[in-house]
Amino acid sequence: MAGDALLTAGCLAGLIGVGVLRAAWGQPRRSMPLNLAGWALMLGGAACGWVAAGAWGMAVTSLAPMAGACLLLGIAGLRSTPSKLKASNRRAGLLPQRGEPLRIGARLLTFALVGVLAAVLAVGIAVALAALLAAAGMSEANAYALALQLMPVIWALIAFTVLMQPSRRGQVKVLALTSVPVWPVLAVGALS
Amino acid sequence: MSAAPEPSSVKRALSAHAAIGLITGGLLYLVCLTGTVSVFYPELQRLEQAVAPEMESIAPDAVQRGVEAVLASEKGKPPTTHLYVHMPVEDLPRATITTDTQAVHLNADGSIAGPEEIAWSDFLVALHYTLNLPGLIGMTVVGALGAMILALSISGVVAHPRIFRDAFCLRARDHSGVGLADWHNRLSVWTLPFSTAIALTGAVIGLGSLTVWGLAELREKGDVLRVYAPLFGPEGKPDGRPAPAPDVAGVLRDMARRFPAVTITYVTLHEPQTVGQEVQVAARHSQRLIFGEYYRYDAGARYLGAAGMAEGDLGQQAAASTYSLHFGDYGGLVVKLAYVLFGAALTAICATGVYIWLGKRQRRGFAEPRLARLWDGIVWGGLLVLAITLVARVALGNAVAFVPLFWVGYLIVLVLAVMVGTEPLRFRRMIRNLAAATTLLSTVMLLA
Questions:
Q1: Which of B313, B314, B340, B341 should we substitute to test contact with A (largest number of A Cβ atoms within 10 Å)?
Q2: Is the whole-model pTM more than 0.90?
Q3: CA–CA separation, B32 vs B347, rounded Å?
Q4: Mutate which of B142, B176, B215, B360 to disrupt the A interface (most A C-beta within 10 Å)?
Q5: Does A11 share its domain with A66?
Q6: Averaged pLDDT, B238-243
Q7: Contacts of B193 in chain A (CB under 8 A)
Q8: What pLDDT does B237 receive?
Q9: Structural domain of A7
Q10: Could you give the number of structural domains in chain A?
Q11: Is the residue at A184 inside a domain?
Q12: Residue A175 covered by a domain
């Protein structure tokens, strides 16, 4: 019973938090207290969910502010009026402008670095971390689960970091640095 | 001091965001679309085969009779390696037995009611899980798409410094490109926790085999089962000598006595009718994110222990929570509706991303009607062909070859989109209306 009340309170806190942020971000000048109150209410809502029913409660209460925000967005969309604002034309720089070379080889290489090599490195880092933690006394279940959860995150971070580099040399440096934890793993694998 | 990133970083992040989005966009859209519909997988099964017997619960002796009847029906065929009994639960109140070669529904008394006919629902889920590619390859590709959603989330936030400040600003009626960008950015921000959770759990499920392979090679002499054992519990030692069917009724009675608060979802027989056979019961725990706990029994209904997903190591609980968090089946209809809403938002984010990029190029003077029609073909054509497969299921039955129907149909739509000379906006209106009409038709046919 107390758990249900906490869950309801968590959902309400999340919803109110979204409303407070809506008010804060609708003001002409940034309002730190309102901003903090909005975020605190949303975090508090999730915390209520955790206290009420652990990860399940947190997952349930986290849905409320997202649903509330979608509702507010729907209202904003319905109320919006046409304006003469010009859309952003920021160039993503993916396709060449007229007269520029296609650079297909370079693009394929970038794809291979981000889509293949970064994935291999992510597996290597996740496995190396699991091996290290297991050697330090962590249970196999915890070490293996951590590796499974971390691998995609590591891949996404490496992919993002590689693509943020302004030059090929920078990309190679990032990949070389991130490969460092993998070398001991490969050495152990080669020796076993 | 400002926390905003440097303009050059913002520009590079936008390039990274666009590069990942454009390369993965089409497949991401398809995976998100099918994932959103798959939230209602149990309900779709009930609609697809409306005549199957339903029950609130089934007696242990009836399950025993059903198991023995199914095993007897397979005499003379290669023995099944596993036999799964789906127990009646709230969103799918049916008792169904699946072996390596068949799936049948049971009546409440345990007699076989007839074959399970949910080929369309299974096709939909397979399309989402693997894009209909062979097993591990498909799962890895879809898992990679999950990882790329994570990369898109990171690069999207960095590429838009005002993304939180403008989080409620939706100029939906601006057709110059502002409205589209607003929809894309606002939905992205407010569904960010959902998108991150879905992407991460999807990537963990899809890419798990890669990581498990790495762990097995390094630590378990290449034996992947030894990596899974600490997470989901061990399996018994195989012994192929013949034996009678296990005492499933005894197992269910013992479960009711030992664990009255749990809801049994599946009973799995490993290597049935062999000396090495074991009975594994999967059961849901109320108000838990884990898909369930595994309880092991021997063939004589002697309790061997639980795997530990409910009360064991944190890693076990986290691994077991991955699935429900991804499928949205942990909180009844309200949570499922929320997942459909946010899933639809994620699908729209995938679609609008490429539309934004095409719009920018058009405003800079690059008119690319073929590319514009192609993307319309991917977005609206995907929905159209998916709806056509459902119409075919209702009109023609369970035996339709859904995989070729979908992919050949999709290919035809895409080829037509590139080849026809129709003006892009007119083409979009046509294919959008066609997709909407076919989706409506398929829904009405399914519900009728």
A1: B313
A2: yes
A3: 5
A4: B215
A5: yes
A6: 90
A7: 62, 66
A8: 86
A9: 2-77
A10: 2
A11: yes
A12: yes
